Amino acid sequence: MRIEVLYFDGCPNHEPAVERVREVLKEEAISAEVVEVNVRDASTAQELGFLGSPSVRVNGLDVEPAARSVRDFGMMCRTYAGSGRRVGLPSLEMLRQAILEAQSGIGNSRSGGGPAGEAKRASLFAAGSVFAAIIASFCCILPIVFAVTGFSVLGASAVFDAWRPYLLGLTFGLLGLGFYFAYRPRKEQCAPDSACAMPATNRSGRWMLWLATGGVVLFAGFPYYSGTVAELVLSGTSSAAASESPKLAHASFVVEGMDCAGCASAVENKLKTLNGVRTVTVSVESRKAEIDYDPHSTNVSQLEKAIKEAGYDTRKV
Question: Are 178 and 205 in contact (CB under 8 A)?
């Protein structure tokens, strides 16, 4: 463990701060290197991230958690929160807590605690909520993906549709936790213009949270506009045969597992890739596919196979 006491010449609290650090180490029976760092000018203060004299750091972290994200560096006297007022020395308890945390391996990262840590947690919850929203919309995303790639996972979209309410609950739960950590009020009350009272720089975390919210809304609402997306994505993958047939046959299929317009579009475009298929009508409401086709170019078995390759169970009516 390395403990630094940063100060400038003439600071009356420099030596008392060193004594308090040694006192805590002795009481806790902890062996640690105590280094006194003399900050001689403003440029050195900026380079070292000097928040005022005396500043005490344990393994590179300021002993005052609320000051760890502050960037107001310079040659000035430092004050700490203590007993409802600002004092010139960190309290024994503040030093003890920082030293014991370092001893146990807690708080050894600059982004692990305080407002910066809360911003990080908010970002993690935001990312998790977007991921859960994507998974929740797989019931309507998968058919389009399968149609584009040619892969087939029978019944997969129906499985995701069954889990959609739970996944959406998880989505908005994670998003709520993200907003809680990003916007919850700071518990510690500090004197005006003190290091503790400086606002933490967590704007990037909040921006990410709001961007994630937009993503969540976009993916959670995907089933409602999936038909339009499917038409745009799959329009280039379907081709109806141009040859004329003297007589067309008609086939009706029950398509199980369709729950959105995107699913219907995926089935429709898959069927249109078959030679001989003239017209296709797929209804989400009735869960049926009505197909007019040239029996000389394709047959019922091929039509049924195409529907299954789109990811759905089917049977001829």
Answer: no
Q: Are 37 and 6 in contact (CB under 8 A)?
A: yes
Quickly list H helices, the chain. Answer: 14-27, 42-48, 92-104, 114-136, 138-149, 156-183, 203-220, 222-234, 261-272, 300-309
Residue 74 confidence (pLDDT) above 90 = yes
| Cβ atoms 107, 101 nearer than 8 A | yes
Instruction: Give the domain 232-316 fold.
Output: Alpha-Beta Plaits (3.30.70)
pLDDT digits (tens, 9 = 90+) for 184-239: 665 444 444 444 444 444 566 677 767 777 777 776 666 666 666 666 765 655 44
| Calpha distance 18→145 (Å, rounded) | 64
The 3-state DSSP composition of the chain as helix, strand, coil percent (nearest 5) reads 50, 15, 35
Cα Rg of the chain, angstroms: 32
Partners of residue 2 on adjacent β-strands:
33
CA distance 220 to 218: 6
Gap between the Cα atoms of 103 and 59, Å rounded? 10
Which of 108, 40, 107 has its CA nearest to residue 75? 40
Average of pLDDT values for 31-40?
94
Neighbouring C-beta atoms of residue 187, cutoff 10 Å: 6
Q: What is the pLDDT of residue 292?
A: 92
Measured distance CA(4)–CA(105) in Å, rounded = 18
Q: Tell whether omega for the bond before 54 is within 30 degrees of 0, i.e. cis.
A: yes
CATH fold label, 2-104: Glutaredoxin (3.40.30)
pLDDT at 259 over 60: yes
| DSSP at 77 | B
Q: pTM to 2 decimals? A: 0.37
Considering only CA atoms, which of 299, 304, 259 is closest in space to residue 283? 259
Angstrom distance (rounded) from CA 117 to CA 123: 10
pLDDT digits (tens, 9 = 90+) for 267-290: 888 898 898 899 999 988 888 999
